[in-house]
Design a protein that fits this description.
Layout: H1 5-13, E1 18-19, H2 21-27, E2 32-35, H3 39-44, E3 51-52, H4 58-61, E4 76-79, H5 84-95, E5 101-104, H6 107-113
Parallel strand pairs: 1-5, 2-3, 2-4, 4-5
Helix pairs in contact: 1-5
Length: 119
């Protein structure tokens, strides 16, 4: 059986924690915010305080990023454009030892559609 990208996202969502926009807003001050979109998407607008590490290089770059050294205690909110890449990224983070990574359901689109701040 061949899996589609959406099949992989659905499988990832079975193994991760997703939070809604309201929970993400409440946690902005106490969490690291990780934008896994491409750099061009990030520079066009992102959540306040978000760090950008694109999904395609996440596993290779996160270990050398100074803000992501505490795998056990760091609370990380991961988002992308609509929630697919962030689900896959959150699953990958869990696999490499980040215990408190969550995916923001609906992604940047849901964030902006709700009228939240973008920088």
């Amino acid at each position: 059986m061949t899996l589609t990208a959406m099949d992989l996202v659905a499988q990832a969502k079975q193994h991760i924690v997703e939070i809604d926009i309201d929970d993400a807003k409440e946690s902005l001050e106490t969490s690291l915010i990780l934008d896994v979109r491409e750099l061009t998407e990030y520079t066009a607008g992102h959540l306040p305080g978000a760090f950008n590490i694109p999904r395609g290089v996440l596993e290779f770059k996160i270990g050398s990023h100074p803000d992501f050294q505490d795998k056990q205690d760091a609370h990380i909110i991961v988002y992308c454009q609509s929630g697919g890449r962030s689900a896959l990224a959150t699953e990958a983070l869990n696999k490499i030892g980040f215990s408190n990574a969550v995916s923001m359901a609906g992604g940047f689109k849901a964030w902006t559609d709700s009228g939240n701040e973008v920088v």
